[in-house]
Write a structure and sequence with these properties.
about 220 residues; mainly alpha; about 0% strand; about 75% helix
């Protein structure tokens, strides 16, 4: 199997977050959007359409650089805690299952557009260090979850094991973001929740990465 080189995924969250924050600053500086009105509009969307859109975006996150953290926060804002949490968990697991299927059944030409050989190598090192708990830990780290899903499929990890440990990591992450989103009253709060969540999970990533590199 031939793969492209270069570990790309670790930079994508920073680029996405920077774009979102810059857009927010520009729109607010030019007074182009009523940010408080946006939240009211989001909460007024038909729940069926909101759920369908959020679910679809969460699932295609495995192929496209869709920022899943803001989507999960918005699930809480638009749908409230019970429904938003159920949707976020199902959508996140759907993305993980799709990534696993892609890694296991897709041809090399498609797999190499999602993960590189360096990414697969690093994922195996993490797996050796943390065992199957790695799948749960990775669920909360931006973009890493998608790479891990594909890597698990490529490595022929048991689907039941992969999904079980992924679920363990998915529930607390989604619960925290959905709860925060359900309490948000302005776009500023939604952006801040997403930014804080991003920084915390990226910090966790670099901490764990140091442990992996230090391991014999």
């Amino acid at each position: 199997m031939s793969y492209e080189t270069g570990v790309r995924w670790k930079w994508i969250p920073a680029v996405v977050l920077g774009f979102v924050l810059l857009s927010w600053i520009v729109f607010e500086a030019l007074d182009l959007i009523d940010f408080e009105g946006v939240v009211s509009w989001v909460r007024g969307i038909d729940p069926v359409w909101a759920a369908a859109a959020i679910f679809a975006l969460l699932v295609v996150d495995v192929l496209l650089p869709v920022p899943s953290t803001p989507l999960i926060v918005l699930a809480g804002t638009a749908l409230g805690l019970p429904l938003g949490l159920a949707l976020a968990i199902i959508g996140s697991l759907g993305s993980s299952a799709a990534g696993y299927a892609l890694g296991r059944f897709a041809g090399p030409w498609l797999v190499r557009r999602v993960v590189t050989i360096e990414e697969l190598t690093e994922m195996r090192r993490w797996g050796r260090q943390f065992g199957p708990w790695f799948f749960g830990v990775a669920r909360g780290i931006p973009m890493m979850a998608e790479t891990v899903s594909v890597s698990a499929g490529v490595s022929r990890v048991s689907f039941r094991t992969f999904m079980s440990f992924t679920l363990v990591g998915t529930i607390p992450i989604c619960a925290a973001y959905v709860f925060a989103g359900s309490k948000a009253d302005t776009v500023e709060q939604i952006v801040m929740i997403s930014a804080v969540g991003f920084l915390l999970t990226v910090g966790l990533f670099y901490l764990l990465r140091r442990l992996v590199k230090a391991a014999p």
